Amino acid sequence: MLIVLTGIDGSGKTTAARALVDSARAEGRSALLLSNHAARRRMSILSARYGWTLPPRVTDTIETAVRLFNVLLNHARARQFHGLVVMDRHLHCQLALRRTAGLGRGRLLPWLLKKLPAADLHVHFDTDPAVAHARVMARGTDQETVADLRAFRDAYRSLPEYKDLVEVDANGEPSDVLAQLNRAIAASEEAAVPRP
């Protein structure tokens, strides 16, 4: 089973992905966690340290290249793995970032989304930008503003693909979010069972 998790920074998707894989392994099942990051956090840290301000198109070019590499590599890894595969982030993240930056969708990412194997379940972690901002500040590894996170959230919601995602309320405690995620997985597995 392939599960994809998306959401704005601070939505808790990475925490939930790790917990999901850990719980599956604790039950004796094979599970693999794959991260489709775009080096945004590292670029944010470098920008703050050295006072860089890259143009949006340059930033997008770097992020898209890193994201594409990870997505293609991880889909290849997922094909070779038998068990639960959880992908933390996907191409939808880059499409939302592009929209946030006022850039177009382009042709490559939407085309790849149609060509790559579809996830059995794609869960989007919807989070209040203020809650997400508090979490980002608490981890202290990168910088985001509430306005940026709000724009990112709106960009996700405006994607044509958004209607096909299963949305969970990610404002609560990690255990509550994981419980919602597990319910979504159970519902997806039940729907996939052929009716007699």
From TrEMBL:
Pfam families the record matches: AAA_33 (PF13671)
Name under which the protein is recorded: Thymidylate kinase
Organism: Paenarthrobacter aurescens
